[in-house]
Amino acid sequence: AVLPDAVWVGRMANAGVNTLQLRFKSEDETAIRHEVRAAVKNVQGTAALLFINDHWKIAIEEGAYGVHLGQEDMVDAPIDQLRSAGLRLGLSTHGYAEMLRADAVSPSYLALGAVFPTTLKRMKTAPQGTSRLYAYAKLIQHYPLVAIGGIDAERIPVVMKSGVGSIAVVRAITGESNPEIAANTLQAIIRSFLQRTI
After folding, report:
1. Which member of 36, 97, 115, 162 has the lowest number of beta carbons within 10 Å of its beta carbon?
2. What is the pTM of this model?
3. CA quadruple 98, 68, 47, 12: dihedral positive or negative?
């Protein structure tokens, strides 16, 4: 689950979502630190692994599990410093060239997207669609892979057939009237798919 603030992180951690990403957008460093610190606190005592989007320095200082970076952030972030701090590293990719760049730093996982059109983020690249997702997932299967972008309950089976191990969602949880039930439903669909393919 990709979530906008620490309160959402706490809700989804308590709902049993295994991996969470805090994508808190602000120019105010004090506000960012407050959200990261609160999010780290909100996952304590749960099984959730918390990745912080973009704010790698604060993620290190506040003891997050990992950090997620976009391609443009890879240039400025000291990968060696992230590793020495023990943080896991997730990287966004939007095509083959970006996959090669990400591969050069051996991340903990790669995010592939956007698979379908999304209204939440202004994308510089067109949606990849499932054909490219399948091709990319096959090429770089030695990494844990996460599909992202416009994925909902109906699209999970076709996305999972690509061979990715995880799906990242935003609106499929935060846009629902009962996010906890939505999260559990999405996870149940994925578990059911995986059980059928074992």
Report:
1. 97
2. 0.95
3. negative
